[in-house]
Amino acid sequence: MDMWNIFVAFISSSIPLGIPLLYGSTGEILTEKSGHLNLGIPGIMYVGAISGVIGSFLYEMSCGNVKENMVPALAILIPLLCCIIGSVLMGLIYSFLTVTLRANQNVTGLALTTFGIGIGNFFGGSLTKLVDTDLPNIILTKTSDFFCVELPFADKLGWFGQIFLSHDFLTYTAIIIALVVSFVLNRTRVGLNLRAVGENPATADAAGINVTRYKYLATSIGSAIAGLGGLQYVMAYASGVWSNNAFGDRGWMAIALVIFALWKPTMAIVGSFLFGALCNVYNYVHHFFRLGHTANRELFNLLPYIVTLLVLIITSMRKKREHQPPQSLGLSYFREER
Amino acid sequence: MADMVKKTKEPLLHIAKRDDITGLKAWLIRIAAIAIGLLLSGVISALLTGASFFEVYEIMFTGVFGRIFEGKTTMLWRFLQQTAILLCLALGVTPAFKMRFWNCGAEGQALIGGLAAMVCMMKIGNAVPYPVLLLIIVVASLAAGALWGLIPALFHAQYRTNETLFTLMMNYVATQIVAYYVVYTTAGDGSGIIKPVATGNLPVLLGEKYLLNVLVVLMLTVAVFIYLKYSKHGYEIAVVGESQNTARYVGINVKKVIIRTMVISGAVCAVAGMLMVAGTDHSINTNTIGGQGFTAIMISWLGQFNPFIMAAMSGLVTFLETGAAKVADSFFLNSSYADIVSGIVILFVVGCEFFIRYTVKFRHNKKGGNA
Amino acid sequence: MEKTPAIELKNITKTFGAKVIANKNVCLTANHGEILSILGENGSGKTTLMNMISGIYFPDEGQIFINGEEVMIASPKDAFAYKIGMIHQHFKLVDVFSATENIVLGLKEKGKFNLKAAEQKVEEICHKYGFEVDLKKKIYTMSVSEKQTVEIIKVLYRGADILILDEPTAVLTPQETQKLFAVLRRMRDDGKCIIIITHKLHEVLSLSDRVSVLRKGEYVGTVNTCETTESQLTEMMVGKKMELNIDRSEPKNMEDRLEVQHISCVNRQGATVLDDVSFTARSGEILGIAGIAGSGQRELLEAIAGLQYLTQGDIYYHNPKTGETDDLRNKTPLQIRELGVRLSFVPEDRLGMGLVGNMDIVDNMMLRSYRKGKSAFLERKKPKDLAEKIIADLEVVTPGADTPVRRLSGGNVQKVLVGREIASSPTVLMAAYPVRGLDINSSYLIYNLLNQQKEKGVAVIFVGEDLDVLLELCDRIMVIGSGRITGMVDARTATKEEIGLLMTKTASVEESAEGGSDNG
């Protein structure tokens, strides 16, 4: 392969790698705009992924594991719906604890992450036994095929097709969702109200906004969006193969990305592609450089974390008012506080 | 006029703040929450496995403590060891939490401390006398953990950089460095696993492998308690945590306190890593701490930053995790089941704080003057 | 048409927790086309009562009637539906939004979301009542009076018929107050029902038609303004005959204690908050500082206390013991203390700066003294004695010295703070808004304490907001506007209007620093 082709392949494969981050950070931005720092997002993404996996696993089984028996629309809708239901349930647990019961958001989020990753790995590791099959592990390549239909002309337009048209539909959906969220936040009445809730819930309340409802909705929809990121990872990036812990720490990176994006979904699109590329360097670096000791390649796994740290530091050095997080982020609201 | 308005019903529930709850009542609420959480996870276990509710708990108990009534203490020691390591990490993050510095980096601080110990054991294990080696291992470990605490503290003190995400990322940096080290040292045999090293192992007391670890953590528990409650440093930490403005107003150097506390926090977490590497495993991998660093955060919070309550909480969570893992094991399910069970209980405890801080009143329907 | 009261309250009761009874069996009526004042000391339950009308709190017992019909107001939304609008003392505005965005916030208007159309409608209201405000301006760049205007427009935009204003003049200059009163009178003549919450007697007398008085959460009575006097109102408010005068002694043995020379400082955003400020504080006198809230008062006191970085200028302290002069510029509070400067500071933010709310009284005493001694451990005996002494001397109402201070009432919190600051026998005592939110008895206790300190030869610096109090208590009054000193007047001869004009003046006066130094 010549350098150009490798480069195109690098860019092309970086895009789906960034998409789970984009889903995660879009969902987290929406949640944070309501004043809630949801550190449960990593767990929610696991739950979203495994819910989708369970849905499609059962559907594939019911079709006798024959691709021809499967209806494409159902093969896509069932996992999608399961994924959304699973993540929204997690979002509801989070909102019930932090909005209604006013629990500490940091602790609730962390507990939810442990819980969610536990659910993901438990069902990922036990699903085949729980439904009494003799399959050794979960491989959903058939469903994955339905998810990964390329856009027309993808293979006829050379590098352009490969970079921009060759992805699964959840990749494009991610970008559309980010743009929609951005529009809603900045150009609609609902967005104005939501931002007011996150900035100053007492003011929003006094202005007649149902603070609790906004917080619940933002957290639940945010969780649903984040959950899709998990599903995209399994169905598109991992070609339908579930392996425990494979999703890794992408959820945390998605949360860090929110700060990088200064709470703007449009900036999150740019950021997620950048981080996708950074995570991908490890896979491609040996094509471009001589690395010496075999272990040296491992060091490139550090890249996304180091860059995240730099991003955190640099954004914290800027003090512009418009670049700050929502003012009451992380604080519970109680109307009769005195 | 008013008839254009939809008549509002009297709200059924009304929430009010309460300030005057007794400590005993508060603990009763927490214990009730734990009990409900245990009950619920027992029911879920029974449903998943088909075993009866009591069977589940029997498996859990024997899975954790073994045949303790027959005088077999092996399992008990393993339980104590796990509790001790979890508690040690929780003790590490507690001073930072008291300062409202969300140190989510216990995992990384412990791992890097363990790595420092590992490097010493492998590189100079045979070069220096045993007592000197032990000293070097301890110092190197603590220094590495302290460094991992220092870096986020510096940036937080200077630029108020978000410490939660910073420390989280430091975890992954530590993990990747360990991964690199493992690949680097095993490049020759390609096994990817560092074989236990015989040099620089911590001494075994009274023939009990885990006794030293447990004793060290026990002493740390008392030390952290005294440090936070009776020392001037502890007082400064409390003031900075409650209000940085007040701290500045009375002349406390806030940056210095943040940095000092995080250095201590990182070093204590590193003790856990050192005990795991030099005391228990004599080897290292990316999973040596195994996510306990995250659990420790919840332990610290659930224990209200009180080291002794934290010790009890560590015991409870360790019991749940090992027990649930045993349940999963006996029914050939994935061991991550443990995370679900402890997650449920922790979420219940987190949620029950509401009933300690607020009361819910049902409004009695009262007819006013027009009745 | 029969005169139905716009709003009528019957037997309203509201409690917080088990012990705090904020309102007990309160009855009240207010009519269209009138201005009703609700008068009461701080802590008498005025705001709680109004919060129940505007849907922030829900009453435990009692009924609310709007235009003769019983209603249930469970949320602010319900209040809007009954055309009730409240302007809270702490403005309920979103800082990073523009004026228009704040005004339309939370409304469910038909059609597409269109800020431009809303803006036009807002401008009509401004025109009708004579408001001047830049609708595109972000709230955080606005002055307090602008913010208040936005709040009033906000409730009018929602079609409010009943307007409740909570201490609307607390942060305004006398001139701005007159302007606001004119607007309120215009609205009354327009048929609206205006309720203002206040504890200032002269405002009640000059503005309202009727006055209802609350005392300790209970309704005392209602009188027509034209038939009452200041002393009758005071008696109703306090429950006993009371002379509201502050004894002011002549300053004695004045010496220059603190010399502030040309200091400037900038805030985090880089804006200048103190600009070439110079003045001298003398022992044995009370120097008052007047100004619109947020004009640099806080920064000035913090600069002296070593909490602000100065870009220029010096602060000299003449030590009465050694006779030496020290420069305090850019020293930390600890360094200042180590120089032997006995500086006490009662900051504006009591629980956020002066005290730690979650700590008990003993631990709060320790804030100033915990460093003493070489031991690494704390010594709690002496702070405990001090706490008990302050509780006894200043009659602090508390279950004990081990009660967290946040559970104390505002007046008792302030007694603890002032008590601690005075206990170190200072030579300079700075107090920022020390009576804000306090009831009359506690306020006068604080004034007396400040006077005692003055007579002891302490240089007292008093930042206040109530010009009447400043004129009665202080010896000299320095006026600060936008971080500059705009004047120094003799408190015995100056008038409120004179100070009000200085407060809004932007250009600094020539030789402002020594302007009023010819008294005493």
Report on this model:
The complex is a heterotrimer of chains A (338), B (371) and C (520). By secondary structure, chain A is mainly α. In chain A, 70% of the residues lie in helices and 0% in strands. Chain A has one domain: ABC transporter involved in vitamin B12 uptake, BtuC (Orthogonal Bundle). Chain B is mainly alpha-helical and 371 residues long. Helix content of chain B is 69%, strand content 3%. Chain B is built from 13 helices and two strands. Chain B has helices at residues 23-49, 53-65, 74-98, 106-123, 130-159, 163-185, 211-230, 232-242, 244-249, 254-281, 292-302, 307-330, 337-357, and strands spanning 13-17, 358-362. In chain B, strands 1-2 form a two-stranded antiparallel ribbon. The longest helix of chain B is centred in the middle third of the chain and has 30 residues, at 130-159. Mean pLDDT of chain B is 88; it is low at 1-6 and 365-371. Chain C is α/β, with parallel strands linked by helices. Chain C contains 17 helices and 20 strands. Chain C has a six-stranded mixed sheet, sandwiched between helices. The radius of gyration of chain C is 24 Å and the shape is globular. The relative contact order of chain C is 0.11. Classes of the chains: A mainly alpha (338), B mainly alpha (371), C alpha/beta (520). Chains in contact: A-B, A-C, B-C. At the A-B interface, helix 3, helix 4, helix 11 and helix 13 of A face strand 1, helix 6, helix 11 and helix 13 of B.
CATH C-level of chain A: Mainly Alpha
Q: Quick one: overall form of chain A?
A: globular
Counting helices, strands and paired strands, the structural category of chain C is alpha/beta
Task: Classify the beta-strand content of chain A into a percent band.
Answer: under 5%
- Tally the beta strands of chain C: 20
List unreliable stretches of 5+ residues of chain C. Answer: 507-520
Rounded Rg of chain A: 21 Å
SSE order of chain A, one letter for each helix or strand: HHHHHHHHHHHHH
Give the CATH architecture of the largest domain in chain C.
3-Layer(aba) Sandwich
Q: What is the beta-strand fraction of chain C?
A: 15-25%
* Number of separate domains of chain A: 1
CATH fold node name of the largest domain in chain C: Rossmann fold
The CA-CA distance between the termini of chain A, in Å, is: 69 Å
Question: How many separate helices of chain A?
Answer: 13
Annotated CATH topology of chain A: ABC transporter involved in vitamin B12 uptake, BtuC
Q: Please bin the fraction of helical residues of chain A.
A: 55-70%
